[in-house]
């Protein structure tokens, strides 16, 4: 469990940003990950009074406030209607309902953990993050950025007719994924795949060769899966070897593309 010298409920984003510039300051998300460590925090910054716990729908986008819980995403009918069940699928294996009622999307995305299910799915869907200082940054770019002292205000999901299928392989039901994959079809007919838990952070692979442009068949899905697996790096850890993860990438990307074509998104 962490300890803190000062606990501040921020009254504005500007106040929270200023407090976060202190070297030992830490923004509190759902604390699901923080509580697992033994950090000595100088200033703990609570964003819960800033109205960031809402899923807001606009004509062209959804905005998921940083304090929106994973359970809110899992049960959102609006998100399911817009993107299919992929977002629900990306969070339903995370520990249990009690945990998902506490864990926040801001904490999940800011951490940029390699094992993050929502990070992989949202990357495939073309999401961006709204940072207090830096503004709107594509998630695929944010993943590669170094940690700094900006604030993640919201995750922005464009309503552009995209649909995705999200699949994982896990050793047990609620364990971290051995590998995660999401395949997305955009409104213009182009495809991409995001692959996470490699065990590195999620990475995006565009169908630049047009392998699925002529339609998704078993052969074209296999070709795209091979294309993705050949362009990504994989490593070994206690959950699986690099070779096994590359094999899983071929399997999950192919299955996701076929399920997308069959309308299971």
Overview in brief:
It is built from 10 helices and 12 strands. With 265 residues, it is α+β, with helices and mostly antiparallel strands.
Structure explained in plain terms:
The protein is α+β, with helices and mostly antiparallel strands. Helix content is 32%, strand content 26%. It has ten helices and twelve strands. The strands form three sheets. A five-stranded antiparallel β-sheet has the order 4-5-8-6-7. It has a four-stranded antiparallel β-sheet with strand order 9-10-11-12, with helices on both faces. A three-stranded parallel β-sheet has the order 1-3-2, with helices on one face. It is globular.
List keywords for this structure.
265 residues; alpha+beta; Enolase-like, domain 1; 5-stranded antiparallel beta sheet; 12 strands
Task: Set out the fold topology.
Blueprint lengths: L2 E7 L3 H8 L4 E4 L11 E7 L8 E3 L3 E5 L4 H6 L1 H7 L2 H6 L5 H4 L4 H7 L5 H8 L3 E4 L3 E4 H4 L9 E7 L4 E8 L6 E9 L5 E6 L6 E4 L11 H14 L10 H20 L4
Parallel strand pairs: 1-3, 2-3
Antiparallel strand pairs: 4-5, 5-8, 6-7, 6-8, 9-10, 10-11, 11-12
Helix pairs in contact: 9-10
